Amino acid sequence: MVQCEMCGKDVASPNRVKIEGAELDVCDECTDFGTEVTTEDSSSTSTKYSTSSSSSGSSGSSSGSSSSSSSRPRHDMFDEMDELAQDYDQRIREAREERGLTQEELAGELNLKASLIRKLEHGDTLPSDDVQTTLERELDISLSAGSTDADEEWSGGSSSGEYTLGDVVKRKD
């Protein structure tokens, strides 16, 4: 028997659900918290996301809205977000140095504090969406990692097709 990864309840046949960008094996009651993931049996490795229409009768308050949206696929908000590049600090520093500016001069042009520029270039802080957009526009750089084909066709994990956190995480030592 498997445990639900949300509530810990023992489940004979868990449902695969995408919740806030993570795919989890959950019980029927926790299925309502995300979008059910069904994999196609074709040769492609893509997954198809559809709303859960086979959940138990415990979703009384959301049953009215789920019937109208069950004909079209739901998308998770994290599917649309760009990830910040891991080397964002180097990109900012190199672009600033190419323009021949000091941290203080760049901060003055962007109407930001010099200490913020310093922290961004050292990688001590992540830029807010507004600061990221401003830096990208003014320095003519991209701070987004962008998805690659390697991300979508990643083939790590065990031979059974199940992945653990250790298969995905890269340590920064």
TrEMBL record:
Residue ranges constituting the HTH cro/C1-type domain according to the UniProt record: 92-146
**Residue ranges under compositional bias (Basic and acidic residues)?**
88-101
Q: Mind telling me which CDD domains this protein's record contains? A: HTH_XRE
Region spans: Disordered: 35-101, 143-173
Tell me the GO molecular function terms: DNA binding
> Which residue stretches does the UniProt record annotate as biased composition, category Low complexity?
42-71
One matching Pfam family is HTH_3
- SUPFAM superfamilies from the UniProt entry: lambda repressor-like DNA-binding domains (SSF47413)
This chain's protein is named Transcriptional regulator, XRE family
Q: Which organism is it from?
A: Halomicrobium mukohataei (strain ATCC 700874 / DSM 12286 / JCM 9738 / NCIMB 13541)
